[in-house]
Design a protein that fits this description.
One of its GO terms (molecular function) is NAD binding. Residues 119-294 form the D-isomer specific 2-hydroxyacid dehydrogenase NAD-binding domain. By secondary structure, the chain is an alpha/beta fold. It is 32% helix and 13% strand. The strands form two sheets. Strands 7-6-5-8-9-10-11 form a seven-stranded parallel sheet, sandwiched between helices. Helix 2 (22-29) packs parallel to helix 13 and helix 6 (109-124) packs across helix 8. The protein is elongated.
Length: 334
């Protein structure tokens, strides 16, 4: 690349200002040529942009960078992703062409972990049910039913997936009076113990946990890993939390268990996503469904921009990239 490489945004136009506010655009302007008013979201309509690009600053809305796109991108050297997963746009052809791919996934870890732990605490208090009862005129302040199955104290929490997020969740839970189990086929027993958790197989985790929280990637082998059989293993009163990928859970198998009130759920992701209007899980007082908001949102989006800009600066100065994606690891990534 020359002294002033050309960078092109490849993400939804309406997100540019939130991810790359003026101070970050100024940092980019110091090292690359970039028109922030022009974005690439369609390969056919953006071929002229591709022909000029040395660096793509990608994000949600980036088109698939396949052989057809690369044919019009002779100078492309790097695709710096100002978001998490690169699976939607980073193709085998992109890596084969020698394009460096970076992801800002690491800056999405903390907010998802914080959301998860908050969901664990609130769900253990049966907050959604209690709020609904209060709204309907019952269960007011000061009412303490005898033997109520609520509260976090003494719970066993099963963490499925020792991903970056799963590991932070485990470390955060170390500050609570809970016992932790963990299932991850790639995790050693010593690593699990270091994280403060007992390593177990998935069936055992489902049987023993009061709360199960999912942090596994969406892979063929994890598709509906929480299926009808394993949902049936959960104890009466258990809570299922999913802030990972909707496809990890058999949604329709979950429905009858929640409808009867046998188990509760907090679902930030679903399959399908979004759930269709009128779906039973959207109507229940013991289920909280949120619109995939656990990760960076609002003012937090600039975290993605800060990371991406720093990656561009490192790239230009010849330093190693913090978020470089190894294609050999892509199959196991979220």
């Amino acid at each position: 690349m020359g002294s002033r490489p050309v960078a092109v945004f490849a993400l939804y136009q309406h997100l540019v200002a939130d991810i790359f506010p003026d101070d970050l655009l100024a940092r980019l302007d110091a090292v690359v040529d970039l028109d922030p008013t022009v974005v690439l979201t369609d390969v056919d309509a953006g071929r002229d942009l591709l022909r000029t690009a040395d660096i793509l600053l990608t994000g949600w809305g980036c088109p698939r960078l396949d052989a057809a796109a690369l044919a019009d991108a002779p100078n492309l050297r790097a695709a710096i992703h100002a978001a998490g997963s690169v699976k939607h746009h980073a193709t085998p052809e992109l890596f084969a062409a020698g394009v460096t791919v970076s992801s800002a996934a690491e800056v999405n870890v903390r907010p998802v972990a914080e959301y998860t732990v908050a969901a664990i605490v609130l769900a253990a208090k049966r907050t959604v049910q209690r709020a609904a009862a209060y709204r309907d005129g019952s269960g007011g302040p000061g009412e303490y039913p005898t033997g109520e199955d609520s509260g976090l104290y003494g719970n066993t929490i099963g963490v499925v997936g020792a991903s970056r997020i799963g590991r932070v969740v485990l470390r955060m839970l170390a500050g609570y009076d809970v016992d932790c189990l963990v299932y991850d086929p790639y995790l050693t027993e010593d690593d699990a113990r270091e994280l403060g958790a007992e390593p177990v197989d998935l069936d055992t985790l489902c049987r023993r946990s009061d709360i199960v929280t999912l942090h596994a990637p969406d892979l063929p082998e994890t598709y509906r890993m929480v299926d009808a059989r394993r949902i049936g293993m959960l104890r009466d009163g258990a809570i299922l939390i999913n802030t990972a990928r909707g496809a990890l859970v058999d949604t329709e198998a979950l429905v009858p268990h929640c409808v009867t009130g046998r188990i509760d759920a907090v679902l930030d992701v679903t399959d399908p996503e979004p759930l269709p209007a009128g779906h039973p899980l959207l109507e229940l007082d013991n289920v909280l469904v949120t619109p995939h908001l656990a990760g960076n949102r609002g003012r937090e989006l600039r975290r993605f921009g800060e990371f991406a800009v720093s990656e561009v600066e490192r790239l230009i100065s010849g330093q190693p990239l913090r978020g470089r994606v190894d294609p050999a690891d892509l199959a196991r990534m979220a």
